[in-house]
């Protein structure tokens, strides 16, 4: 069981897991790691079937009407829960920071969006800041480096929380890379709309990852991880890439991102 | 200035492949960022000052008409004259009028982005007047016939060996065997050349970092002292400035100055902060005989009306581009017009049209680093999204993007269909990709796989596996 700070004994909570479209489609093991971490922190986890994507592809392409429709659909799917938790800073920030503004002039949804937004959290910061988790019971033998994904860092203030929990993983040592807070060049549709710029950015990032000397790269957002893993694998780097939830949950038996299935 | 913003993608492609540019841009990252961080950390009230500075500008913009009128009254009271110019054409004509009236042959210029915006040098040259840029960076790019690539460090795209070559080619009056490889030697030589320009100039043109309503003053901040010589030595001083530069009082000015240099270069204060109020008064030892302010609108009063008003808080410190990973990758020229970086991405579409500059607000990952350092707390990502929405409304986005997005949104709004289809697709992709764990190539994913592999999905979706798990538990 995870350890809590002594003054906090949070009541059981009913969490709606916002899986995120990338975890759902590309790497369900991250979703199960999230479920384990949440259950260990005393939450009951449910996964509404009526969720798809948070709407960022439309939102960041200027398609406000579709984004609003997706926002209403997502909010309706999660309204009944104590908390909405996503294993992604970017998707959590979308619901938490952007849905209320998107629906501000919608008389049916404005107030509800604000209420749900306040109950929406990114996974790791939810564990530490809401559930008072200070340590996890997990083992990972090796050096890791952690990339601060932009939305989590700048919109939700996630910086210390993942490092605090990583420090409690037995056998793990963290080598900070230079410029951990600089964007990896993913940016959703940006990476395919401006491939040359995106490539220059992820090349820079790959250099920082390599220079850290870490064997494993971790981050809290699968989009960034797919981008960085794609670049590292293309260039033959031996660095393994994983979502931080997998390490914290101790579920690293699956192949790392972009690595072949073990026989 | 002629825009190449429409060919942004090609510009960017060329820029990322330019090793000299990459070397030069390395200095932006290694220099500005650390210096700003240190300067901010040394001042406990820095964040509070950012709020105060933002509030001053927000207030001023709410009452811009009032402050501009007061500003003009006080310029006139000090013996100067304000020339209201709605467009770049008007501003060019106003400057040329003054220069021709006094028979100017040579004008010296302090650094001014507005002068770039209205392409003033080309206009003066076309009318037989020689402009001499006196800011070192501006002087260098003038020699090269290039626009600035950064709003406070116009020649930041150049390395010193290139500048040495330019000086050797241009300054043939000096012995060929002279030493010129050190920055100090380059500065000394430029200073020697520019001194002639200062003495010859009939008119001095400067920009303005601020205009102060309560005194009718214009204010410039510089590090080289060239601005002072530009505005004090000639008989006529022309200030070219856009109308959002006005602040109510000297007290407000001092608040904003405290965040400006720290955000820009990490200095606590620029080396020179020069306040000019009208022409030389009786008894003054020096100063110009005439003092003119060419006050440019060029679309800004339109911006006041909507969401873009926040852009007008900008004090042109350059922190947004100094911290922008896209700027670091491509430099300033790729943006294709006067203002590069995040501020350019929101300002340029407003000034020259989103049809021309639509790529700029799209070429951002919304990483938010610009907003996090902007001293005036301009929500740059939000304003880039504003332009994307205008483009989408007007069907300006490429057809492939619009159809792809429409198909995706259709699915995303139908969860049952979405889960069925994604479930099928991932099972296929997962089965094919399992052995290698990734794809080097995928249909319709060339933008991704040109530079990276595409990691293979694990196979079944989370929703499918979760449904199996729930069914197993229920049994």
Mean pLDDT of chain B: 96
Please tell me the CATH architecture of the domain at 43-302 in chain B by its name: 3-Layer(aba) Sandwich
Q: How many β-strands of chain A, per DSSP?
A: 10
Evaluate the radius of gyration of chain A.
18 Å
- Helix fraction bin of chain B: 40-55%
Oligomeric state: heterodimer
Most extensive interface: pair and counts?
A-B, 70 and 66 residues
Which CATH architecture of the largest domain in chain A? Answer: 3-Layer(aba) Sandwich
What is the mean predicted local confidence, pLDDT of chain A? Answer: 96
**CATH third-tier fold name of the domain at 43-302 in chain B:** Rossmann fold
**Number of alpha- plus pi-helical segments of chain B:** 24
**What is the terminal-to-terminal distance of chain A?**
32 Å
Low-confidence region ranges of chain B: none
Count of helix runs of chain A: 13
Q: Shape of chain B, please?
A: elongated
Helix content of chain A: 40-55%
| Count of all domains of chain A | 2
- Give the termini distance of chain B in whole angstroms: 73 Å
Describe the structure.
The complex is a heterodimer of chains A (263) and B (475). Chain A has 263 residues and is α/β, with parallel strands linked by helices. Chain A contains 13 helices and ten strands. Chain A has two domains: 3-129, Rossmann fold, CATH 3.40.50; 135-248, Rossmann fold (3-Layer(aba) Sandwich), CATH 3.40.50.11810. In chain A, 47% of the residues lie in helices and 16% in strands. The model of chain A has no long low-confidence stretch (mean pLDDT 96). With 475 residues, chain B is α/β, with parallel strands linked by helices. Among the domains of chain B are: 43-302, Rossmann fold, CATH 3.40.50.10420; 404-474, no CATH class. Chain B is built from 24 helices and twelve strands. Chain B has helices at residues 8-16, 19-42, 46-62, 64-77, 88-101, 113-117, 120-126, 136-144, 160-170, 183-200, 226-232, 250-264, 300-303, 319-322, 325-330, 341-352, 354-357, 359-362, 369-373, 380-393, 399-412, 415-433, 446-449, 462-474, and strands spanning 81-85, 106-109, 130-133, 203-206, 210-212, 217-222, 236-242, 246-247, 272-276, 290-296, 438-439, 454-455. The longest helix of chain B is centred in the first third of the chain and has 24 residues, at 19-42. Chain B starts with 7 loop residues before the first helix and ends with a helix. Classes of the chains: A alpha/beta (263), B alpha/beta (475). Chains A and B meet through helix 1, helix 2, helix 3, helix 4 and helix 8 of A and helix 1, helix 15, helix 19, helix 20 and helix 21 of B.
């Amino acid at each position: 069981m995870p350890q809590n700070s002594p003054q906090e004994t949070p009541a059981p909570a009913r969490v709606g897991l916002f899986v995120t479209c990338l975890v759902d489609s590309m790497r369900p093991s991250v979703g199960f790691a999230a479920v384990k971490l949440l259950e260990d922190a005393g939450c009951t986890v449910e996964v509404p079937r009526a969720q798809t994507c948070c709407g960022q592809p439309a939102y960041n392409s200027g398609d406000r009407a579709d984004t609003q429709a997706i926002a209403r659909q997502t909010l309706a799917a999660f309204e009944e829960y104590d908390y909405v938790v996503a294993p992604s800073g970017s998707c959590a920030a979308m619901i938490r920071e952007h849905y209320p503004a998107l629906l501000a002039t919608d008389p049916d949804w404005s107030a509800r969006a604000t209420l749900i937004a306040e109950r929406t959290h990114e996974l790791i910061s939810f564990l530490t800041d809401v559930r008072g988790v200070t340590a996890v019971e997990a083992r990972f033998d090796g050096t890791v480096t952690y990339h601060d994904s932009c939305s989590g860092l700048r919109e939700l203030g996630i910086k210390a929380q993942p490092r605090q929990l990583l420090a409690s993983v037995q056998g793990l040592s963290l080598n900070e890379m230079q410029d951990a807070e600089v964007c990896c060049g993913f940016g959703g549709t940006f990476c395919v709309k401006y491939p040359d710029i995106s490539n220059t950015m992820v090349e820079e990032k790959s250099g920082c990852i390599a220079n850290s000397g870490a064997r494993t790269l971790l981050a809290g957002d699968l989009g960034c991880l797919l981008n960085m893993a794609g670049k590292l694998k293309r260039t033959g780097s031996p660095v393994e890439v994983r979502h931080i939830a997998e390490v914290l949950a101790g579920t690293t038996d699956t192949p790392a991102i972009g690595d072949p299935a073990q026989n | 200035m002629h825009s190449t913003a429409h060919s942004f993608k090609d510009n960017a492609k060329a820029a990322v492949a330019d090793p000299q540019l990459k070397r030069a841009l390395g200095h932006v990252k290694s220099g500005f960022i650390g210096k700003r961080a240190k300067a901010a950390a040394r001042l406990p009230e820095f964040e509070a000052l950012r709020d105060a500075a933002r509030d001053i500008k927000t207030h001023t913009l709410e009452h811009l008409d009032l402050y501009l009128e007061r500003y003009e009254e006080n310029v006139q009271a000090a013996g100067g004259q304000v020339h209201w110019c709605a467009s770049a054409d008007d501003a060019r004509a106003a400057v040329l009028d003054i220069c021709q009236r006094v028979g100017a042959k040579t004008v010296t210029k302090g650094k001014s982005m507005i002068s770039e915006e209205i392409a003033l040098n080309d206009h003066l040259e076309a009318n037989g007047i020689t402009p001499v840029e006196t800011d070192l960076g501006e002087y260098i790019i003038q020699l090269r016939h290039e626009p600035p690539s950064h709003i406070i460090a116009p020649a930041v795209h150049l390395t010193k060996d290139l500048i040495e070559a330019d000086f050797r080619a241009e300054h043939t009056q000096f012995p060929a065997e002279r030493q010129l490889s050190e920055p100090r030697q380059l500065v000394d030589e430029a200073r020697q050349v520019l001194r002639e320009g200062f003495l010859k100039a009939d008119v001095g043109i400067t920009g303005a970092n601020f205009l102060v309503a309560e005194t009718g003053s214009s204010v410039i901040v510089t590090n080289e002292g060239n601005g002072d010589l530009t505005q004090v030595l000639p008989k006529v001083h022309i200030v070219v400035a856009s109308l959002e530069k006005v602040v109510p009082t000297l007290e407000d000015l001092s608040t904003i100055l405290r965040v400006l240099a720290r955000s820009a270069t990490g200095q606590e204060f620029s080396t020179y902060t020069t306040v000019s109020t009208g022409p030389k008064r009786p008894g003054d030892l020096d100063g110009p005989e005439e003092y003119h302010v060419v006050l440019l609108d060029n679309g800004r009063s339109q911006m006041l009306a909507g969401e873009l008003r926040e852009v007008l808080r900008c004090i042109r410190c350059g922190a947004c581009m100094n911290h922008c990973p896209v700027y670091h990758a491509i430099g300033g020229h790729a943006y294709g017009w006067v203002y590069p970086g995040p501020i350019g991405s929101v300002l340029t579409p407003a000034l020259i049209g989103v049809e021309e500059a639509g790529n700029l607000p799209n070429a951002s990952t919304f990483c938010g680093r610009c907003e996090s350092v902007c001293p005036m707390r301009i929500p740059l990502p939000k304003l880039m999204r504003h332009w994307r929405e205008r483009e989408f409304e007007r069907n300006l986005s490429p057809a492939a993007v619009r159809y792809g997005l429409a198909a995706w949104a259709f699915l995303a709004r139908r969860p049952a269909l979405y889960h069925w289809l994604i479930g099928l697709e991932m099972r296929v992709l997962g089965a094919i990709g399992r052995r290698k764990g990734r794809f080097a190539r995928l249909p319709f994913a060339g933008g991704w796989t040109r530079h990276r592999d595409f990691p293979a999905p694990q196979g079944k979706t989370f929703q499918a596996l979760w449904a199996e798990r729930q069914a197993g538990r229920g049994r």
